Amino acid sequence: MKFAIIIMSIKDGVDSMKNTKGFVMIETIIVITILMVGLISLYSSYSVIISRLQVKNNYDNVEYIYKAYFVGDYLIDNNNVSTFTIYKPDTSINDLKFIIDNLSIDKIYVIPKNFDYKAEIPKLEGSSIAYFNKWNDYEKNKINIVVKFKSDDIPSKINFASVAFE
After folding, report:
1. Region 143-155: what's the mean pLDDT?
2. Phi/psi of residue 53, each to 5°?
3. Same domain, 140 and 102
4. How many structural domains comprise the chain?
5. Any residues with CB less than 8 A from the CB of 52 and at least 6 apart, and which?
6. The pLDDT of residue 3
7. Is residue 43 within 8 Å of 80, Cβ to Cβ?
8. Domain shared by 38 and 101, yes or no
9. Three-state SS sequence of the chain
């Protein structure tokens, strides 16, 4: 008799488990959905932080600041820096052309003292516009030199550096 009661209770347990299979599946779907929403929100926050760090890495790197200082020192010693000027690799100044070629420079922007450079931004190309819009090292009472460098190893990577002179 006890054996029949045990078998009946096992059968009742199996029958009750059959009724909860749908609940377990719905519960699993809900948990997976909640986890996916959390992971997606973490990814979106993390990707914004990483992209900001990559931009900062391409702007004002120590190596490029040193090169920009060298270029600015040459320009102040040898050229007129009283007007907004853009020097390119095809410049007619031989010494400057030599520096531009050897330091892999794409463009040099000379921004004189008390000059509103923001009026010139729309005339520039895209990567320079992006840099000048994020530029926070501008010193209004000094001559500012901004150098855009070429990147031979990664074509999409553009490096900028800026220095200010009295």
Report:
1. 76
2. -65, -40
3. yes
4. 2
5. none
6. 62
7. no
8. no
9. CHHHHHHHHHHHHHHHHHHHHHHHHHHHHHHHHHHHHHHHHHHHHHHHHHHHHHHHHHECCHHHHHHHHHHHHHHHHHCCCCCCEEECCCCCCHHHHHHHHHCCEEEEEEECCCCCHHHCHHHCCHHHHHHHHHCCCCCCCCEEEEEEECCCCCCCCCEEEEEEEC
| Nearest alpha-carbon partner for 82 in 112, 57, 58 | 112
Mean pLDDT of the region 38-53 = 80
In which domain, by residue range, is 28 found? 1-58
pLDDT tens per residue across span 12-42: 655 555 555 567 778 888 889 999 999 998 8
∠ Cα 138 85 156 (to 5°): 70
Residues 72 and 152 in one domain: yes
Residues 51 and 89 in one domain: no
Q: Which of 58, 75, 98 is the last residue of a domain?
A: 58
Q: How far from chain centre, in Å, is Cα 92?
A: 34
As a whole number of angstroms, the distance between CA 90 and CA 155 comes to 20
pLDDT digits (tens, 9 = 90+) for 56-112: 556 667 888 888 888 888 888 887 677 777 888 877 777 888 888 888 888 888 888
> Same domain, yes or no, for 89 and 149?
yes
